[in-house]
Amino acid sequence: MGGDFLRVDPVLGVRPPRVEGTEIGDRAWMLRFFGPDTDRVLIVNLGTDMTHNPMPEPLLAPLEDQGWQVLWSSEQPEYGGTGVPPLYRDGFLHISGESALVLMPSALTPESAPELL
Fold first, then answer.
1. Is residue 108 classed as helix, strand or coil in its secondary structure?
2. What distance in Å separates the CA atoms of residue 28 and residue 41, rounded to the nearest whole number?
3. What is the tens place of the pLDDT at every residue in 65-109?
4. Structural Rg of the chain based on CA atoms
5. May I ask the CATH architecture of the domain 5-116?
6. Other C-beta atoms lying within 10 Å of the C-beta of residue 6
7. Structural domain boundaries in the chain
8. Which among 16, 40, 80, 115 has most CB atoms closer than 10 A?
9. Are 68 and 96 in contact (CB under 8 A)?
10. For residue range 24-77, what is the model confidence (pLDDT) as tens digits?
């Protein structure tokens, strides 16, 4: 998936965006883009790997009965990365170091988030 998804995405393509952000670590921050029906989260981690146990930031909380799935990652091989690691580890959100992610909501199913069920 190329950068075109930013223009056509039903949340990220909206102008002007409705967005809130915060720091989530010493060298990490996030922006949550609010759409009419769904949201997106951009996470930039310039530090080391982070596992949120529990999630310390309300802006990172998924909607009820949903989890997050990766829509885009700088760790994808086409961007020089080594591949996208699982987003959840032992039921907790894991963010790789020196990476960026765009997350989108997904239903909690054994296929989408086996670690959470």
1. coil
2. 13
3. 888 999 999 999 888 888 888 888 877 889 999 999 999 998 877
4. 14
5. Sandwich (2.60)
6. 12
7. 5-116
8. 40
9. no
10. 999 999 999 999 889 999 999 999 999 987 767 889 988 888 889 999 999 998
Selection from 84, 87, 88, 102 nearest residue 40 by Cα:
102
d(CA 4, CA 15): 15
The CA distance from 94 to 78, in Å, is 21
Which helix (DSSP H) or strand (DSSP E) does residue 70 occupy? strand 66-73
Peptide bond into 114 cis (omega under 30): no
What's the CA gap between 85 and 64, in Å, rounded?
24
Instruction: Name which of 94, 74, 92 is nearest 83 in CA terms.
Output: 74
Residue with the larger pLDDT of the pair 6 and 60? 60
- Residue corresponding to tokens 């949550």: 32
Q: What is the largest CA-CA distance in the chain?
A: 37
Give the span between the Cα atoms of 27 and 48, in whole angstroms: 8
pLDDT of residue 96: 92
What are the structure tokens assigned to 66, written together? 């949903």
